[in-house]
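@channel anyone free to eyeball this complex?
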Amino acid sequence: MKRTTKLIALLVSGSLAMAACSAKTDSGGGSGKSTFDLSQKTHGPNGEAATPVGQVAELTSDELAKVKDKHYKVAILHGGSSTWFQSMEAGARAEAEKLGMQIVLTTQADFDAAKQASQVETALAAKPNIILTLPVDPVSAAQAFKPAVDAGVKLVFIDNGINGFKGGQQYVAIVTGDHFGMGRTAADLMSEALGKKGGKIGYIFHDADFYVTNNRDRYFKAVIEQEHPEIKIVSEQGFTEEGATERIADAMLTQHPDLDGIYVAWSAAATGVLAALRAAGNTHVKVVSHDLDATNDLQIAKGENLYGVAADRPFLEGQTMIRLAARSLLGQQTAPFVIVDPVKDSKSSLVQAWHDSLDQEPPAEIKKALGG
Amino acid sequence: LNQGAGAEPNAPATAAPARGKWIAERASSLVVYIGLVVIVLFFAVTLRGQGFLTADNLLNVLRQTAMVSVMAIGVTFALSAGEIDLSLGSTVALSALVGAVIMRDGNLVVAVVAALAVGVAVGLTNGIITTKLRIPSFLVTLGMMGIVSGLARNLTNLRAVPVTNSTFTSLFGSGDLGPIPGLLVWTAVVLGIAHLAYRKSTFGRSLLATGGNRVAARYSGINTDRIRIIALVISGFCAALAGLLYAGRLHGARYTLGDSDLLTVIAAAVIGGTSLFGGKGSVVGAVIGSLIMGILANGLVLMGLSVDQQMIARGVIIILAVALSLREKREA
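replying in thread with the prediction:
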């Protein structure tokens, strides 16, 4: 009896503590009406204007010969692992081969800043000339990448920058997707999916301080609110772990049985939303998200819940990173912030989207479902 | 976590063991040292001229493994008492964040003390709930992991906190003592104190007796609850210290710190000869285990293996290492 009382006391105090902590402000894509200025363009973390990838020219045959002569060494320090990272690496490898460079090592940090700091040190032992990476924590990465800067290694970033670092000084450039463009593409897809009549949608955003996802989420929301009066966001919920989206979607469907659409921050996180819809036997709700994913794209091909996704072009981004590094090694000043156009992936554009984004054929099941 | 009690001769508090057994026990703990040497030799040969054997790289490994070593020393106490501490990874994050936040607008000493107090408080809570409510520490610390993680996320609303106090960063993590990295000094100091407590003190003997056979220990007059609580407090304290070292090394703190360390830490302790079932262990072994894990990570990357290949190779080598040390014990 005494034990039970203690246990209850413990639980009560625990939940009180949690309740006290739960009064928090929002960090990510945010709830509440958006006052976002839609006329702004995707810009770098230090406010750098974006340079379209098309303006990063291929090397001339003279430049190519000079670079090839040096047999430069490249280290790729991935932030995490997924098809997206693989595709970026494939692009980098393809370009490196053309330029006579050798990829001497690859690592992935599981988005753990401490692990990444160790991997930078390890990579430096192999004396690379170039490091391609996604800095997982813009704050602590300044210290983690300092030895690489000191050693004169050419750093090229994808997606994230590092606080206090400047393009052309500590690093060569950041290459990334057009975040705002992707947010707009996702909004276009949602509007297409719901048709002229519009409808009620749920908005599931990435609730963390992360430049890329925050930009995409906010822009999507702003376009819907400011340009699509026929579409109403009736429920907003953030997540940090992909596994949580199924519960979130369940709750949204319970509270809003008449929901017509759901936006979710990226495709792997959409898997939970699609599972919730499947479990509820709901074939009506249309889902829109970001990034290509073999499993989810099968739904697009079959015309099921997932209507479409906006994607960037990791293969092209990987190629561009190597090209920028080569230009920097030739002593040229390069654009500090380079963006690639978004890819719109819906049933009618699926095969092309896979080529544009990942430089791959879609998996056989998807082609079969498309009737090809 | 106490079922290993009868299976092995693991109550070192008894009188001097027979000579044969003494040699056998030494042989089993020797395996981990041999393992370390073999792995270093392997990489030294295969990675000739690729930077592995440079002083800089080896110092890097020592620097990189310091935090895991400190945590592995701490968890060795918990494991030896027949307990486990799953909350250590989240404690790392919370202590680092508490230290960083207080340092931002306050006193360095207060920040350090508060950060370490986080570890002690987590350990104490774990210990009291485990012993007084008689709930297995596996479940208590699993729950605590969630609570502490949640608090760490909430404290700064998922934002990373920069640490700019140069006194702090050079003391914890980023500084050097002459040619020796400060992190190595920290590991050595923690190891020295822990080794004395573990091997040479009454507390150490009581700890192993408690983990080996709690009932027998209680009958011989040991306050086993107190010992178990202290063991979990030591584990929490070491995790908090690791948090400060991370904050000093990275010049910042973030809620994800320590996220992926838990299994590495426990693997390091077990490879180093600490039983998952209590009553047997070695803090020196834990540090060697941590070095093995660190050298593996370093060497496999420098070999130019793909991430997938690195994971497979690391898994195979860990199983081999543990299998070897277990075989020795069975023969003993």
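from a first look: The two ends of chain A are 68 Å apart (CA to CA).
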